[in-house]
Amino acid sequence: MTDPKFYQLTRTERLAWLVAHEQLSAEDAAFLAQQQPLSDEIAGSMIENQIGQYQLPIGVVQDVVVNGQTYQVPMVVEEPSVIAAANNAAKMVRLNGGFQTHQQQRTMLGEVVLTDLPDLKVAQNWVLANQDLLMQIAQAAHPSIVKRGGGLLAIKVTVVDQTFLKLALTIDTQEAMGANIVNTICEAIAREVQNDLGGTILLSVLTNAAFGAVTVATVTLDPATLATKQLAGNVVAQRIVQATRFAQVDLPRAATHNKGIMNGVDAVVLATGNDWRAIEAGAHSYAAQSGQYQPLTSWQLEADGRLVGRIEIPLPIGMVGGSIGILPAVQVAHRLLKVTNACELAGVIAAIGLGQNLAALRALVSDGIQKGHMALQAKSLAIAVGATETEIEPLVAQLVQAKHLNTATATAFLAQLRHNNE
Ligand code: NDP
What we know:
The chain has helices at residues 11-20, 26-34, 40-46, 82-94, 120-129, 131-141, 143-147, 179-197, 233-249, 251-271, 276-287, 328-337, 342-365, 369-384, 389-399, 407-420, and strands at 58-66, 69-76, 100-103, 108-115, 151-160, 164-172, 200-207, 214-221, 297-301, 307-314. With 422 residues, it is α+β, with helices and mostly antiparallel strands.
């Protein structure tokens, strides 16, 4: 008999496996095993009007190879098929040498916008002539980020719609996502500009179009590793290219194409305590920057028949700040993942997004998405209709054979199962 696969183990056995393979400390495994809720003190101080806690499972994608390093990637997600698909992609990509990633730069952008200025051209020239002063204001507004080697790098000033004076601030936030750092600097600069020029401060805030933190991941695949039971690998590869081309010219498809990518991206962003709304806003604005909403990935065949995939996605990820230092489960997730800086974390997340896209496209262009989802959906349905732990397995076995996978069928099968067991 072969050893059971990781997904076939019980949760306790999975934790023991991770400890035995030195991926997780015994203390962290014990923490996850106990599933302790947040203390009232932490939960109550994180948000306004806190009335309870909300649970989601943490899972792991095994052995994701990125830039030659192997990661156990934590994911927090409610959708049953996401981790299975990510694991499937990680395995295919491992056979092909892993993902390559890079983040060329890591800066955040802020916008300071003033209106009601008597002469916009004069105002624009004043900003151009007073860059040093504004740099000093920024340093004084957030001295600690300057000490850490970051802070305001550049100011671009433009007149927008003959109405608005816009200062676009490029800011190095080091290991933080940086929303608070950027907002603090923006507000200080806005006050200075208004003091000197008059007008009204309309807004001064970070933009989530974090195009200064674009991360690229690529993978090159031997088509043979993509073969399914029905289709040869080179056919799967060609269809993946075609499906991506279709997403480039069909907005309804592009939206779903990108949603599949975000299935993986958001799950890691959430597990690592980052702001997934910021990542979503950044990703979709990047996809729409040409004026036509585009897929975030591209897939192309090389002359030798190999399939090359690439994702470009803004990932303003932090290793500090926000809830990262507060939530104990997030800290365990970081210790499992073992990334050492924000750039490395962004690379892993981009790789997961590209892998998620590969798994989804491969399934779509071959067996269709439902086949792989069926067993997982059946399990969710079994739980939803009230199956107990011992009833789930036999009920799922029946449901995957059923003509209609729905609540009525699941309820009827469960009643039958209970009747048979009486
Ligand atoms: P924080 O203000 O929570 O944390 C950043 C702080 O961490 C820095 O100011 C710095 O403070 C400290 N720090 C410690 N080590 C480092 C390091 N190596 N590099 C950089 N900073 C370090 O978070 P952010 O400014 O990152 O803001 C993120 C939060 O803002 C998230 O919770 C997000 O949800 C929220 N937010 C998002 C918005 C958006 O996306 N539009 C808008 C508003 C808020 P010190 O130097 O003093 O130690």
